[in-house]
UniProtKB/TrEMBL annotation:
HTH tetR-type domain boundaries: 23-83
InterPro entries membership: Homeodomain-like_sf, HTH-type_Tx_Regulator, HTH_TetR, MT1864/Rv1816-like_C, Tet_transcr_reg_TetR-rel_C_sf
Native organism taxonomy: Bacteria, Pseudomonadati, Pseudomonadota, Gammaproteobacteria, Alteromonadales
Keyword match ATP-binding: no
Keywords of the record: DNA-binding, Transcription, Transcription regulation
Protein name: TetR family transcriptional regulator
Compositional bias (Polar residues): 7-18
C-alpha cells in the first residue's frame, strides 16, 4: 500500500507540473515572486526558491527567466503596468475637477509606494538602474513614464492648473521629485508615517497648483 501511495504521489506531482501552460506558468511564477519580494525583499528571492514555492522543477523558471535579474525586471514591469493603469483610471473619471484628479494621482503614487515598498524600490531603485541591467522590455515601459509626466504637466499648464511661466520639463522633474521624496520618507519611516499621507499630499498639490 505504501508503494502505491508513493507512486500516486509522484504521479500527482508530475501532473501538477505538466498542467501549467506556457503562459500560465510564467504568470504563476511572477505572482509568487511578487509575494516573495513583499515578504523577504530582493535578497530573499531566487529562482530556486521560486520553483519550490510554485511547486515545479528547479529548472522550470529558467525557461521563462534566464537569471534573477531578468525575473526582477519582469516584476518591475508589472509594477509600472499597474501604475499606468491606475493613472489612466484616475484621469478618465467624470465629475471631478482637474485638480481633484491630480490630487488622486499624487496620493495614489504615494499610497502605492507606502503599501508596496519592496516593489517601489525595485521599480525606481539602484538594484536595476544603477547597475544598468534593465531589460529592453522594462526600459520600454519605464522610460515613457516620465515622458508621460512631462506631457501631462504641459497639459495642466495649458489648463491653468499649474504655472505656465515655469519650464515644463523642470516643473515635471520637481513635481515627480516631490512625489518620490515623500515616498522615500514614508518607506524609510524616519520623518513621516502613513498617518501623514493625506496632509502631505494636500500640501504638495496646493503648492503646485493654482485652482
Amino acid at each position: 500500500m505504501q508503494k502505491i501511495s508513493s507512486k500516486k504521489s509522484t504521479q500527482n506531482m508530475t501532473a501538477n507540473k505538466s498542467s501549467y501552460h506556457h503562459g500560465d506558468l510564467r504568470s504563476s511564477l511572477l505572482e509568487a515572486a511578487k509575494a516573495m519580494l513583499s515578504e523577504s525583499g530582493i535578497e530573499g528571492l531566487s529562482l530556486r526558491k521560486l520553483a519550490d514555492r510554485v511547486g515545479v522543477s528547479r529548472t522550470a523558471p529558467y525557461h521563462h527567466f534566464k537569471d534573477k535579474n531578468e525575473l526582477l525586471c519582469a516584476i518591475a514591469e508589472e509594477g509600472f503596468e499597474h501604475w499606468h493603469n491606475n493613472a489612466e483610471q484616475i484621469f478618465s473619471q467624470n465629475g471631478l475637477t482637474t485638480k481633484q484628479k491630480y490630487h488622486q494621482f499624487f496620493q495614489g503614487y504615494i499610497g502605492y509606494a507606502a503599501e508596496n515598498p519592496e516593489m517601489y524600490d525595485l521599480m525606481f531603485g539602484r538594484t536595476i538602474w544603477k547597475q544598468n541591467s534593465a531589460t529592453n522590455d522594462l526600459r520600454d515601459i519605464a522610460y515613457p513614464s516620465f515622458q508621460r509626466q512631462v506631457e501631462m504637466t504641459k497639459k495642466w499648464q495649458e489648463q491653468g492648473l499649474m504655472p505656465v511661466e515655469e519650464d515644463t520639463l523642470r516643473l515635471a522633474q520637481v513635481t515627480w521629485g516631490t512625489m518620490h521624496g515623500i515616498a522615500r520618507l514614508l518607506i524609510d519611516g524616519i520623518y513621516a508615517d502613513r498617518s501623514h499621507i493625506d496632509e502631505m499630499c494636500t500640501c504638495a498639490v496646493n503648492l503646485f497648483t493654482r485652482e
